[in-house]
Structures are given as C-alpha cells and as structure tokens.
TrEMBL record:
Interacts with PqqD. The interaction is necessary for activity of PqqE. The keyword Iron-sulfur applies. This is PqqA peptide cyclase. PROSITE patterns: RADICAL_SAM (PS51918). It is an enzyme of class 1 (oxidoreductase). Belongs to the radical SAM superfamily. PqqE family. [4Fe-4S] cluster binds at C27, C31, C34. Its EC number is 1.21.98.4. Its cofactor is [4Fe-4S] cluster. It catalyses: [PQQ precursor protein] + S-adenosyl-L-methionine = E-Y cross-linked-[PQQ precursor protein] + 5'-deoxyadenosine + L-methionine + H(+). GO terms for molecular function: 4 iron, 4 sulfur cluster binding; cyclase activity; iron ion binding; oxidoreductase activity; S-adenosyl-L-methionine binding. The lineage of its organism: Bacteria, Pseudomonadati, Pseudomonadota, Betaproteobacteria, Burkholderiales. Binds 1 [4Fe-4S] cluster. The cluster is coordinated with 3 cysteines and an exchangeable S-adenosyl-L-methionine. InterPro entries: 4Fe4S-binding_SPASM_dom, Aldolase_TIM, Elp3/MiaA/NifB-like_rSAM, PQQ_synth_PqqE_bac, PqqE-like, Radical_SAM_PqqE_MftC-like, rSAM, rSAM_sf.
Length: 381
C-alpha cells in the first residue's frame, strides 16, 4: 500500500478524467430531491462568464480531463451553452448534457448538435404525466417527452435518467418499456442519494427494502427481455447494502466539479461539509487546485483513513465510502461512512431506514432577507 496518500493515483492516473461544470443553479423545476445546495438562489449573480468557463475547460483538458458534463440546475438556462459545447469539442473533450429537457426546443437542440454535442442525459420521473408534474412541481412531463422524441429524431445518443424514490418506484417496469419505445440507448434507474434537498426529504422519499427488491426483480426480467437493445443501470442504495459506495471513485481521484461561482470541488456535495478550504478558479489555476490545494489532498488516497477502514481488507474497494455522507450523518467527514455495517455509526443509517414519513419540501428559495435579517424559509413551513 502506498505510504504517501497524495501520491496515490487510483485509476485516474492522477488526472481529473471527469469534469462536471455546474453552469448555473437556476432551474424551472422544483424537485424535492435536488442535489443543488439549499441556498441555490444565492449563486445566480456570481456565475462564471463564457470566457471564464472556457478557461476552466482549457486548464482541465491540460490536466488530462476527457469527459465533460454540462449540468446544473438546468444548463439550458445559460444562453451560451452552445458556445461552451463547441469550445469543449474543439479542445477534445467528450461532451455530455445533463438536462431536464425543459427548454430543449428544436432550435436549441439543433444548435447543440451543430456545436458537436455527443450525448444527452435526459431526466424523466414517470410515465404518468400527473405524477411527473407533481414530483417536479411544474407542468413538465409533456415537455420532457417532446425533448426525448426530438433527441432521437436527430439521431443523438440518449441516456434516460429516472431518479427513483418511494413515489415512483412502482413505475420502474413501465419506465423501462417507455425508455425502450423512445429509443434510449441506456436507462439509469438512479436510486436517490440523500444529500441537500433529498436529505431534508429523506423520510418521505426513501423506498422500503421490499419495494427496492421488487424493482430489482422487474429490472432483471426486462434485462433478459431486451438483451443488448438497451442497457439498464440499477443498484440498491447504500442505505440498505451494509457497504458504502466508492463515492467519486475516491476523493480527488478522477472527479472535478466546478460550481456556478467557480469554486472547485471534489464532488458536487462537498460544500455541505464545513471547515473545508474551497478555492475558486477565479483565484488560482486549476492545476494548483487539483494537485496542491489542501481541499483536494485532504481525503485523497488511503493514508488518512480512520479505523475500522484503516485495517479493513475492503479499503481499496470503497476508500471508506462517502465523505459528505459521513459528515451529514455523523458530523465528521473523516469518519467511516455510516453506510458501512462496520462503522460505529451504522445505527444512524438503520434509524433513517425506519424513520416515519413526512410531507415533501419542494425546492424553492429558502433564504428570506428582511431588513438585513436572514432566515431559512423551510424552517417556517
Ligand atoms: Fe469500506 Fe471502511 Fe467499511 Fe471497510 S470498514 S468496508 S473500508 S467503509
Ligand atoms: Fe461528496 Fe460522496 S458526495 S464524497
């Protein structure tokens, strides 16, 4: 095992292979599981300019980035998206657009295709219009469906992403059929991860283990039926598995996320961990941030691992799990992820699984400013 954790390369050979640009947190939808920060509405005036995003892409490419995901919020809210995609293509990045489909008109889709966009990941919540619209708190189902048809009419590769929670897990079979009819190459049935908005709604969103197993059986039957026609991704969430996910394939290993205001992060949730020293691409070159910054070195590799991970034979499989989840559930990001049944905090996961249901809280601006006083709106609901 390497002695210097910061020298450990995992499988990215020290390169930020996967670059995620959170172009904006603005979005026409109000999903109750949104991964954006709770104070998302504070970022709109601090978004990077087109030139700044291009510089980020250039610097990331020089560091070895290969894949880029334009995400958000809703990246289509940026009028310069086509320009950014064209630049990414020009410098040799494989481009992905991660979108709700709302705003993906014929004109914009054609513009993106002409800019060289390689792949679109479109989110769909349900095959049922009323349920979709209820889940995203907007009239969005038909717009999403239109977007899916447009993407396939232009012959572009499409990943359908279905965020799966208690409200729509019964629709998994119907969604597989729907996705195959629409011509998706890949369907990702993404069991929700409980951070930010999803965490405050966890009691209401989390499906039962029985429902998850039932959906797994449905998925298996469809996999056999469809063969190679459409790949289907589905894994039981770590709340139920007894082992954590190898989150981000390790902190600072291959993933680099840039927030709308230019702050560089090892994962999109890391800003929920207090006490970390975040640096913006407006302040420092990306090379320094990735290779030298205390933030990216803090949990990189294996040497920082606490017990029981330090002496565990699975540490090179999951790197002790997710730092953000460890903080959110135990109050210390350096703890073993409580998803692991060897963690002394595993009871917190079990308690969450048994928790009572509560009403959903839809994404909306939380911070009210009244005569300079700030308060969180959801506390007042
Ligand atoms: Fe992974 Fe740590 Fe659990 Fe071992 S003890 S399985 S390394 S999280
Ligand atoms: Fe941040 Fe897992 S989400 S390390």
């Amino acid at each position: 095992m390497p002695q210097d954790s910061t020298a450990l390369r995992l499988d990215g050979q020290g390169k930020p292979l996967w670059l995620a640009l959170e172009l904006t947190y603005r979005c026409p939808l109000k999903c109750s599981w949104c991964s954006n920060p709770l104070d998302f509405d504070d970022y709109a005036e601090r978004e990077l300019s087109t030139e700044e995003w291009c510089r980020v892409m250039r610097e990331a490419r020089a560091l070895g980035a290969l894949q880029i995901g334009f995400t958000g919020g809703e990246p289509l809210q940026r009028r310069d998206l086509e320009q950014l995609v064209a630049y990414a293509e020009q410098i040799g990045l494989y481009t992905n657009l991660i979108t709700s489909g709302v705003g993906l008109t014929d004109e914009r889709l054609l513009g993106l295709k002409q800019a060289g966009l390689r792949q679109i990941q479109l989110s769909m919540q349900s095959t049922d219009a009323a349920l979709t619209d209820e889940l995203v708190a907007a009239k969005a189902h038909q717009l999403k469906l239109d977007a899916a048809r447009r993407i396939k009419a232009l012959g572009m590769p499409m990943v359908l992403n279905m965020p799966v929670g208690r409200q729509n897990i019964g629709q998994v079979g119907a969604m597989i059929e729907y996705a195959a009819e629409l011509g998706a190459e890949y369907l990702e049935l993404a069991n929700l991860q409980y951070y930010n908005w999803a965490l405050i709604n966890r009691d209401e969103l989390m499906p039962t283990l029985a429902a998850l197993r039932e959906a797994e059986a449905v998925v298996q039957a469809w996999r056999e039926k469809l063969g190679k026609r459409m790949a289907i991704y589905y894994v039981i969430p770590d709340y139920y598995e007894g082992r954590p996910k190898a989150c981000m394939n390790g902190w600072g290993a291959i993933h680099l996320t840039i927030a709308p205001d230019g702050v560089a992060m090892p994962c999109q949730e890391s800003r929920s961990v207090p006490g970390l020293d975040f640096v913006s691409v407006r302040e420092r070159p990306l090379d320094w941030i990735w290779n030298e910054s205390p933030l990216f070195r803090k949990y990189r590799g294996l040497d920082w691992l606490p017990e029981p991970c330090r002496s565990c034979d699975e540490r090179e499989k999951d790197f002790g799990g997710c730092r953000c989840q460890a903080f959110l559930l135990t109050g210390d990001a350096a703890n073993t992820d409580p998803a692991c049944d060897r963690s002394p905090h595993h009871h917190l996961m079990q308690a969450a699984v048994h928790s009572a249901t509560k009403p959903l809280r839809f994404r909306k601006p939380l911070v009210k400013r009244v005569a300079g006083v700030m308060s969180t709106a959801f506390m007042e609901d």
